[in-house]
Amino acid sequence: MNLDKFDATMARADRVMARVDERQGASGDARKRERERRLGGYGRAFTRATIVALAIIIGALALGLISPIGIIGFVVAVGIAIAAFGLIFFGGVVGTATAPKIPTDASNGEMVDKFDSYMFRARRGLPAPAQAEIDRIGQALPPLRESLVRLGDTMPEAQDARRLLSIHLPGLIDRYLHVPTAYRTEADGEGKTVDQRLTEALAAGREALGDISQSLARGDVAAFETQGRFIQSRYKDDAL
Question: How far is CA 35 from the centre of its chain?
Answer without folding.
Answer: 11
